[in-house]
């Protein structure tokens, strides 16, 4: 008879079971993962300028924005099979207006009337506006370090994108500031109004509402869109499926989980990505000063998440419980 001896394991370090990992460590790991996932959204949004200029017809900004938002929202509605209740319709259309319709229209106005660097720098002010709005609407404390990090980030975007030929147009400046305020309001209110549904469903509601508003506005203000080429359709598919449906689901997921100041600072990843894509794909120059600006932006994002984390040691369960009371 063959005897099978039990093999004794070699001595070595024992890995702790998941339940043995300290709660503070689990919270830090979860928060880091949330930040990285949320940062993917503005990083992908940085491709919008490249796709718009290289793959879409010029002169139809509102119509193209509607085609970016509405099909993506309807597709997500079909996938999630979750419609907003009647009591939420007002909030959904208000959020869809702030996060998409009003924001995108003002963004296009600023882009047409201002150099791209100036428009992007005005948009970067969103981080500071979010901190102030979060104080008023959510009771989030204003931390000096977070304000300083946001201001440094704006400076980094200016170094990255503003050239010596930049000029200011009053209407363009007003549109740029209005767009930053619109997105800031949408971010803070999306944190305040958390429906008991998944981030994907919440994204579907807002994209659809914003797309409807944009479509109505486009029918009034713009001529009919010409026949689209295969390249145009590919650009719209990228902006709709990846640049809207997938990324905004990540964004609103992050809005629900991370401090508003941290989320808004992550938006500065967008101009960094846009500059890098212009350098790699379009052959645009990237001077040492612009490279310094990119480093400053990344440093401000890192510093901002550290400052916003200070004094916020509550667990994820406590945060979500607090959010539920605001519904």
UniProtKB/TrEMBL annotation:
Q: Does the keyword Kinase apply?
A: no
Q: Which UniProt keywords apply?
A: Membrane, Transmembrane, Transmembrane helix
All copies of domain EamA, residue ranges: 35-161, 171-302
Transmembrane segment boundaries = 33-52, 58-80, 92-112, 118-138, 145-164, 170-190, 202-221, 233-251, 263-282
Q: Which Pfam families match?
A: EamA
- The UniProt entry lists the main location of this chain as membrane
Q: Where in the cell is it found?
A: Membrane
Record membrane topology: Multi-pass membrane protein
This protein's source sits in the domain of life called Bacteria
Q: Which GO terms describe its cellular component?
A: membrane
Coiled-coil ranges (or none) = none
Protein family according to the UniProt entry: Belongs to the EamA transporter family.
Name listed for the protein in its UniProt record: Probable blue pigment (Indigoidine) exporter
Q: Which organism is it from?
A: Celeribacter halophilus
């Amino acid at each position: 008879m063959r005897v099978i001896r039990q093999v004794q394991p070699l001595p070595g370090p024992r890995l702790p079971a998941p339940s043995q990992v300290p709660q503070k460590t689990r919270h830090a790991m979860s928060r880091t993962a949330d930040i990285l996932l949320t940062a993917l959204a503005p990083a992908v949004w940085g491709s919008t300028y490249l796709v718009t200029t290289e793959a879409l017809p010029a002169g139809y900004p509102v119509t193209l924005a509607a085609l970016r938002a509405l099909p993506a929202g309807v597709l997500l509605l079909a996938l999630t099979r979750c419609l907003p209740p009647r009591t939420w319709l007002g909030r959904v259309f208000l959020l869809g207006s702030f996060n998409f319709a009003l924001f995108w229209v003002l963004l296009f106005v600023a882009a047409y009337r201002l150099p791209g660097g100036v428009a992007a720098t005005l948009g970067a002010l969103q981080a500071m506006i979010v901190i102030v709005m979060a104080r008023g609407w959510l009771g989030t404390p204003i931390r000096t370090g977070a304000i300083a990090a946001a201001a440094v980030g704006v400076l980094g975007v200016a170094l990255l994108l503003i050239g010596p030929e930049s000029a200011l147009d009053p209407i363009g400046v007003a549109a740029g500031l209005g767009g930053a305020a619109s997105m800031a309001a949408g971010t803070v209110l999306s944190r305040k109004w958390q429906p008991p549904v998944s981030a994907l469903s919440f994204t579907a509601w807002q994209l659809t509402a914003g797309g409807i508003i944009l479509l109505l506005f486009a029918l009034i203000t713009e001529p009919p869109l010409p026949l689209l080429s295969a390249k145009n359709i590919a650009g719209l598919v990228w902006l709709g499926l990846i640049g809207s449906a997938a990324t905004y689901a990540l964004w609103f997921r992050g809005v629900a989980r991370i401090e508003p100041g941290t989320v808004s600072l992550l938006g500065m990843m967008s101009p960094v990505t846009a500059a890098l894509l212009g350098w790699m794909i379009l052959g645009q120059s990237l001077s040492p000063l612009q490279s310094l600006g990119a480093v400053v932006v990344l440093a401000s994002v890192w510093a901002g998440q550290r400052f916003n984390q200070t004094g916020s040691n509550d667990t994820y369960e406590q945060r979500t419980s607090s959010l539920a009371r605001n519904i």
